[in-house]
Amino acid sequence: MTMAAATDTETLISRLEDILQFVESREADFADLIQQVQPHYRDSARNLVHYMALRSFDLRPIQEELSMMSISSLGHSEGYTLTNLKKILHLLRLVEGLRDYGVQEDFHSPLNYYRSKEQLQENTLQLFGAHPGHNSTRIMVTMPREAAYDYDLVRSLLKSGMNIARINTSHEEPAEWEAMIRHIRRAEADLGYNCLVYMDLSGPKLRTEQLDPAHTISESRKGDYLLLRQGDRISVVRQLPERLPMSETAANTFLSISLPQVFEDVQPDQRIFFDDGKIRAKITEVHPDSFEVEITYAGINGAKLRADKGINLPDTHLRLPSLTEEDHDHLAFMARQADIVGYSFVRTPEDVEQLQSELAKLGREDMGIILKIETKEAFENLPKMLLTAMRSPKTGVMIARGDLAVEMGFERIAEVQEEILWICESAHIPGIWATQVLEKLASKGIATRAEITDAAMSARAECVMLNKGPYIVDAVATLDDIIGRMASHQFKRMSNLRPLQVANQFINNRS
Questions:
Q1: pLDDT per 10-residue tile (average), the chain, 511 residues
Q2: CATH number of domain containing 248
Q3: Are 305 and 265 in contact, with CB atoms under 8 Å apart?
Q4: Rounded to two decimals, what is the model's pTM?
Q5: 134 lies in some domain
Q6: Whole-angstrom Cα distance, residue 30 to residue 301?
Q7: d(Cα 259, Cα 279) in Å, to the nearest integer?
Q8: Domain range for residue 14?
């Protein structure tokens, strides 16, 4: 929705009254979903709906007028949207010399500025537990394989500031996960610290599988690869037979992929990205057992594509189960050993319901659930997925910037990351800032300037995730220091408040 620039206080009041009426009326549209959330999330669910309704407007002209009048900002009302709108209207009416009956009741609504901050803190405490240190932002660390065999490493990580240990079930084996957890519990007892165990489900990760043997190049250190350049055409097939029937326009280089189910969903002109977006292509033809792609970007000198590299289909609605058979097996282990489960490649509210159902069967309805936002579809469905996740007693969101940047576009990741933080704050749901935080420091022992800035910005989330590396203990200590320093500063965020597409989709697509 677009608002023309406000011209005077009376017009401004009228327009804000219209917005307030719209925001309040949208609550009824989502009443059934709000009613299903846990009681301690009820006010937060209402506020999420209010905030999404507010952000479906272009508020920039109104915000400009309010700023000129030195009246409270619309840009800091994520956690208490309705109350803030009413307070702004109250101040404007006073400027016009109007009496504002009933405003005191509005000021004592369930969510004001202070209560919204308390609610977020309570939900964070519920999910992540008490923070033993001086910082409010938790530090999550991905456990390397060495953590299963080196107790001193785990102890050093806890001592340096780790609050949550992450175990990725895409790597290592259950026996090693169990050994890691034993070391974590032992270090907790030795140091008197609390450390939660977070375990990621692998999800249906789409990867390259077999490469065309006639076109592969061998590299002794890393194995075979295809060298692809812009304009090259390849055929993606269900499996690599000795002879592959091709159409007249088909490519003469081909590869197979890990999830042939996607053949039912892909369409011509959709984009396909390989290896974290290092190679980009578009789908040109689709056949029952293959589809053809044309490379649109592969760097100046071409790019190497190997087996077991990730594939993203940002334009394709994939009808894949978010919980794989392997995930079901791993979930039973998590139910016994872990505190929090990370839901990889979750895309829809129905996916969230499926995980909640499986946890109920395992007697772990109390388990914390983290929605990992890794795809364009997950981002667009985030508000509805949050309303569904809030049926569980503990939930949070991870901004998985790696896959998300590939799907949304690298140029958009900063914008999308900010929007996710706003949406989470409106629902009083803790967020996790993840992917490539202090990556060079953890892997090489020295951080880039950009990494330090990113780490400082990460303190706005309730948790920050570090990946493994030989210098991971140093990275944890550095991050803990940075977060502590940033906590002592006053943050001032000013938003232009353009309409959010995700807000419009949520508000206007109730079904």
A1: 58 93 95 96 97 94 87 83 91 79 57 90 93 79 96 96 94 94 97 95 91 85 89 90 53 86 94 94 93 94 93 91 91 96 95 97 96 94 98 97 90 92 96 94 93 91 94 94 74 57 83 65
A2: 2.40.33.10
A3: no
A4: 0.90
A5: yes
A6: 52
A7: 19
A8: 9-120+496-508
